[in-house]
Amino acid sequence: MNRRLIRPSLSDIKDKMTVRSQKKRPTPPEQTNAESFYYLKQMQNRTPMVLVFHDGERMEGVIEWYDRNCIKFNRDPEPNILVFKHGIRYMYKEDEDKSTDG
């Protein structure tokens, strides 16, 4: 009795590999456009904003421009300032602050 080794052909292996690679989910985008949309809307309307930092300090002004890491913040009586995003705890519109004071 002769035993024969059965091997799949190289073309069969390639076909299986392409099917596997097609089933993989694409990686999610690194950034959504929600942040960009929000900043652009506030910049166009020149909305007065309040930035609250991790140490509790507050700063009021208008967003002039932004990039991936920082925001240029215009303050009327004080000089303009460049703020790193990682230092900001949260931000909100200045008029939202006045409406909650009641």
Would you mind describing this structure in some detail?
With 102 residues, the chain is α+β, with helices and mostly antiparallel strands. It has a domain of 55 residues: Roll (SH3 type barrels). The protein is built from three helices and five strands. A five-stranded antiparallel beta sheet has the order 4-3-2-1-5. Strand 2 and strand 3 form a beta hairpin. The chain is rod-shaped, with a radius of gyration of 27 Å.
Order of helices and strands: HHEEEEEH
Q: Could you give the count of β-strands? A: 5
Number of contiguous helices: 3
Kindly report the spatial arrangement of strands forming the biggest sheet: 4-3-2-1-5
Strand content bin: 25-35%
Average pLDDT reading:
84
> Which sheet architecture does the biggest sheet show?
5 strands, antiparallel
Defining key terms:
102 residues; alpha+beta; SH3 type barrels; five-stranded antiparallel sheet; 3 helices; 28% strand; rod-shaped
Give a concise summary:
With 102 residues, the chain is α+β, with helices and mostly antiparallel strands.
SSE layout and pairing:
Layout (H helix, E strand, L loop, with lengths): L9 H14 L10 H12 L3 E5 L4 E9 L3 E5 L6 E4 L3 E6 H8 L1
Antiparallel strand pairs: 1-2, 1-5, 2-3, 3-4
